[in-house]
Amino acid sequence: MNNDLSVKIIPLGGVGEIGKNITAIEAGEEIIVVDCGVAFPDEEMYGVDLIIPDITYLIQNKDKVKGFFITHAHEDHIGSIPYILKQLNVPIYGTRLALAIIENKLREHNLIETSNLISVNPGENVDLENISIEFIQSTHSIAESCCLAIKTPLGVIFHTGDFKIDLTPIDEKVIDINRISSIGKEGVILLMADSTNVERSGYTMSEKSIGNTFRRIFRSAKGRIIVATFASNIHRMQQIIDASIENNRRVSFSGRSMENISKSAKELGYLHIPDDMLVEIDDIKNYSNENITIITTGSQGEPMAALARIAFGNHRKIKIERDDLFIISASPIPGNDKLISKVINQLFKKGADVIYEDLEEVHVSGHAYREELKLMHTLIKPKYFMPVHGEYRHLKHHKDLAISLGMESKDIFILEVGNVLEIKQESAKICGKVTSGTVLVDGLGVGDVGSLVLRDRKHLAQDGLVNIVVTIEKESYSIIAGPDIITRGFVYVKESEELIKELKQIATEELQNC
Amino acid sequence: MNNDLSVKIIPLGGVGEIGKNITAIEAGEEIIVVDCGVAFPDEEMYGVDLIIPDITYLIQNKDKVKGFFITHAHEDHIGSIPYILKQLNVPIYGTRLALAIIENKLREHNLIETSNLISVNPGENVDLENISIEFIQSTHSIAESCCLAIKTPLGVIFHTGDFKIDLTPIDEKVIDINRISSIGKEGVILLMADSTNVERSGYTMSEKSIGNTFRRIFRSAKGRIIVATFASNIHRMQQIIDASIENNRRVSFSGRSMENISKSAKELGYLHIPDDMLVEIDDIKNYSNENITIITTGSQGEPMAALARIAFGNHRKIKIERDDLFIISASPIPGNDKLISKVINQLFKKGADVIYEDLEEVHVSGHAYREELKLMHTLIKPKYFMPVHGEYRHLKHHKDLAISLGMESKDIFILEVGNVLEIKQESAKICGKVTSGTVLVDGLGVGDVGSLVLRDRKHLAQDGLVNIVVTIEKESYSIIAGPDIITRGFVYVKESEELIKELKQIATEELQNC
Predict the structure, then answer these.
(1) Which of A128, A236, A301, B394 is within CB 3.0–4.6 Å of A339 for a Cys-Cys bond?
(2) pLDDT of residue B25
């Protein structure tokens, strides 16, 4: 083997942060990119809708980039694709379901004609010149999630994607432990693994475990059942559908993403529901309430999603009725607790009943807990390890976990966004940083809002603004009109007349002093 | 007894919301007020510092108001006192510790001279003309918290305050179960009880239970230990001090409220620490790191508090050193998760170790879980019940809990802020609403910011502002100068030259059309 061979791993997002997962892997003249996700703004990012990665490095090397390889179809792994494709149009490889969900997105952005989506089944390989990528069946809170075994001239890089070890998944597509074990036995130079739940001890419960809860709740419900969950969680949908059919309830989908994804998933055979058990939302009135289940978006309390609109009486088609039972089948993503609580309070106030995670087991996590992570490490036994998919605290604890399993600290690399991990025949090290960071999306604008604009918005948000308008004669500098004081978001003008008067006074004096 | 007798209970805050606890109880010509707390703004309340209750009703009836009766010294029960006293100067009754903490506040507001603070020991009564108020020893996450037995001409109203049933409290002042039982036996017309943790099953752990965790952690720590907790949690402080002394560590306090409260608590005998074990923060450098514990504010990740300043290198006196161990001995209040996580990430990045609730049992709740609530209900056996201290979901679940214990729905009252619960000899009902609501504090301004101002701030925050300045000749209406476009928080001007040019164009055309 050539001693000058090197492979570079460059996370352009997803390390030291939750969201915006995207990693470039470079071998010789080839770059492949794993995932292409978005992140969501925090409260300080006034007016920002989405955060996408800065892909300057990929554009600078665009002739090398052979494609995006998508582990699964969650927003934090695919959400930036429409924005990135406009800058860099390369093929996108993924499973059928992932591509169907991406297609919906591309259609909304009018990009479907120009894009090149290539379907790969779990178990199959994509062979490029230097690199070959194997998609391996995994389990997660979305169907057809995959681990990737990325075969480079220096050896195999194993990327877990987002995973849990679910041995009784709803679709019976068990995570391919045997294949993972073989790959581990053959030797892996680098493991990149999901760190989300490294702070939780034990095992996640199987998705199947909550089916029993649903069945018990559904049996005793008297009115409609309205379940809010993530639109992409097709296995959750299936369990809700199964419990509904058992209890002679027809199922309706509400919310754009829920309608789109359920339709695609049904067409592709991932979601099983007899046509006569499926009801359009306009037709639910033709059935009595105890024969209806509605599956809806808005499980994070998002003010514009279906659940919040139902709660606050703004939904055009669904009004709260007597004996309605709402189930919020999701965990609050950090930062969303208050939004969800507002919705729950409102539903209770309107007389509905509401079941959520604090009260019943209506949700399980899709990310591996500590014991599952240990199992993955033990199967793969990598030479080097790079924790991914987590804030710094998670990466740090994942490093500690690897050390507790026998790895040495020097072989574990916590990267920042843009850092380059260079692996050579006998060594690995972090060498430098490429251009990288965040690009903010505000409405139709991509990248025209940044820290200075946000700083101004913050000032405006906290203090409002005071405009002083005055007309001055050009030659004599005497005041012709004004000063007039116009304020927005400052104080109630009526109740602060004194203050405004004083402002005028000061403005006049200052002008005269000029 | 007079059949026209009536007692009114009017919550002016604290029901259907977390925070701002304040309730008026009116019998004949007397009104007493239980607590006087603040609430904290949510993210949508741009620029707002605090939320205080609208006490119009009390001011309209100011001759009746005999005083504020403080159950305990948490901000959500005492934080509005300085603002309210300026409008309504009546006596404040509370335990010595509560008054000491209130005194610190009043001193900052220059109100200490004019205020009338009256100390009451647990077990003592305050006798007014119609009403008599008994303070009863309770347990909570602050020392000397009390339940109140409010004896009215119609019978006893029992207000739990914030409580848990801790039978092994640090100060050995066990909640006075026997007295509560006697009061219950004598008959209670109305129970008002803390609903915070009604969604949690089982019992809270005793405060004492985390002492062992501290001791174990302290024994193996090599450098300084820096513990962040609530300044008012004197029992927590005591446990940290005890573990420190056992391990030959001197203790220093950091953060204004931590310094103030620890000083008051020590002087009053609530906090026990030998003088030679106490070190000023300026003097910690005289000891080796393994002999120092620092107790600090900022456990909620507040950007201006000591912990965040240490983490981000802005603390004047404390810099992170090798082997520093940070302990965050608190739960995130909903909405604060992201702030805390930022601080934790930063501490890890700087090489410190951090222990928090997800990893170790370094915090217990101060609010009763379901089994404790059931015990309280069973001891009191009230005629009527009004759940307090919670969002609507908590009040609703507390109502359900009371029903599960045998009460009838018609005897349970969920009130909104300002609602009047009128109790008569043979009946109770909600009758009407008094003026009430929220008053926003923004800097020095109290009440000069409201929904219209906030709406404008929200628009400014999300979109920024565009100012078009143009000078027009008075008679001919011709444009003399401009239009000039000035933006703040809109877009980067440099990178959006085209857009600005277009704006000018449109403005000119519109002006010419006028």
Answers:
(1) A301
(2) 98
Q: Which chain B residue has the Cα nearest residue A444?
A: B491
The answer, for A444 touching chain B at a CB cutoff of 8 Å, is: no
B479 has a chain A CB within 8 A of its CB = no
Closest CA to B415 of B7, B14, B4, B3: B14
Q: Give the tokens for residue B79.
A: 């934080």
Q: Residue A463: its chain B contacts at CB < 8 A?
A: 47
pLDDT at residue A428 is higher than 90: yes
Q: Which of B337, B341, B391 sits opposite A345 (nearest CB)?
A: B391
- Tell whether B199 lies on the interface with A, counting CB pairs under 8 A: yes
Say whether A47 and B338 touch across the interface (CB within 8 A).
Answer: no
A312 at interface of B, judged by CB pairs closer than 8 A = no
pLDDT tens digits for range B315-355: 999 999 999 999 999 998 888 889 999 999 999 999 999 99
State the catalytic residue, choosing from A367, A377, A394, A398. A367
Instruction: Indicate whether A471 pLDDT > 90.
Output: no
Domain A210-355 in the same topology as domain A6-202+365-446: no
Of chain A, the percentage scoring pLDDT greater than 70 comes to 99
Helix %, strand %, coil % of chain B (to 5):
30, 25, 40
Q: Does A495 touch chain B (CB under 8 A)?
A: yes
Annotated catalytic sites of B, by residue? 194, 367
Choose among B374, B347, B372, B222: nearest CA to B292: B222
Whether the pLDDT of residue A24 is over 80: the answer is yes
- Write the DSSP assignment of B181-241 as a string of letters: HHHHHH-EEEEEEE-TTTTS-S-PPPTTHHHHHHHHHHHH--S-EEEE--TT-HHHHHHHH
User: In this structure, which amino acid lies at residue A318?
Assistant: I
As given in the structure block, the two tokens for residue A30 are 């080839």
Give the residue on B whose Cα is nearest the Cα of A494: B448
Query: What pLDDT is recorded for position B477?
Result: 77
d(CA B413, CA B402): 11
Architecture of the structural domain at A210-355? 3-Layer(aba) Sandwich (3.40)
This prediction has a pTM of 0.91
Query: What is the topology classification, in CATH, of domain B209-355?
Result: Rossmann fold (3.40.50)
Structure tokens at A391: 């804030």
What's residue B498's pLDDT?
83
Taking contacts as CB-CB distances below 8 angstroms, the residues of chain B near A19 are none
From the candidates A18, A416, A444, A456, which should be mutated to test the interface with B, based on the most B CB atoms within 10 A? Answer: A456
Average pLDDT over residues A423-427: 94
Q: Please confirm, yes or no, whether A4 is among the known catalytic residues.
A: no
Judge whether B492 is closer than 8 Å to chain A, CB to CB.
yes
CATH fold of B6-202+365-439 reads Metallo-beta-lactamase; Chain A (3.60.15)
- A216's CB contacts (< 8 A; 6+ apart) are none
Q: Where are the alpha helices (DSSP H) in A122-267?
A: 177-186, 209-220, 234-246, 256-267
Neighbours of A325 (CB within 10 A): 21
Q: What distance, in Å, lies between the first and last C-alpha atoms of chain A?
A: 78
| Fold classified for A6-202+365-446 | Metallo-beta-lactamase; Chain A (3.60.15)
Q: Where are the domains of chain B?
A: 6-202+365-439, 209-355, 464-513
Residue B364 labeled ligand binder: yes
CB–CB contact B457 A489 (8 Å): yes
**Residue-level pLDDT at B229:** 97
Region A249-265: mean pLDDT is 95
- The answer to whether the Cβ–Cβ distance between B460 and A460 falls below 8 Å is yes
Please tell me the distance in Å from B394's CA to the nearest CA on chain A. Answer: 9
From the number of C-beta atoms within 10 Å of its C-beta (0-12, 13-18, 19+), residue A41 rates as middle
A194 noted as active-site residue: yes
Report the DSSP pairing between strands B292-296 and B225-228: parallel
User: CB count, 10 Å around CB of A182?
Assistant: 12
